[in-house]
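Sequence, please.
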């Protein structure tokens, strides 16, 4: 399973997503804003980013840009209450409008990881 970096400032949502991802067998590192997420990733690089767009100190858009400077192929699930404000630049970025259930989150993550494996096999 994958190591997931979960960046979500709303504690209850973060706990709900973390639990759902861990039940699926993933290892999850949680950060509550973009700055903290960068620090966590520096110590233990993630295979996938799950982030909210709107967070204090640094939002998900800048977080994703900075992490992709380190690892351009980093897949990401971006969760937002304002999905029209975010353009998906590549097939490795999935946008999920809020509210999103943990079930949908884990399904889309599984699909993203499967697509990534399929690309690597060719």
């Amino acid at each position: 399973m994958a190591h997931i970096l979960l960046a979500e400032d709303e504690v209850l949502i973060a706990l709900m997503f973390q639990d759902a991802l861990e039940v699926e067998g993933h290892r999850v590192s949680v950060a509550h804003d973009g700055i903290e997420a960068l620090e966590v990733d520096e110590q233990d690089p993630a295979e996938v980013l799950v982030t909210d767009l709107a967070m204090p100190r640094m939002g998900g858009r800048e977080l994703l840009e900075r992490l992709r400077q380190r690892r351009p192929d980093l897949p990401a699930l971006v969760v937002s209450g304002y999905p029209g404000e975010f353009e998906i630049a590549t097939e490795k970025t999935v946008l999920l409008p809020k509210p999103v259930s943990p079930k949908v989150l884990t399904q889309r993550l599984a699909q993203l990881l499967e697509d990534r494996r399929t690309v690597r096999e060719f």
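The domain at 3-121 is CATH 3.40.50.2300 (Rossmann fold).
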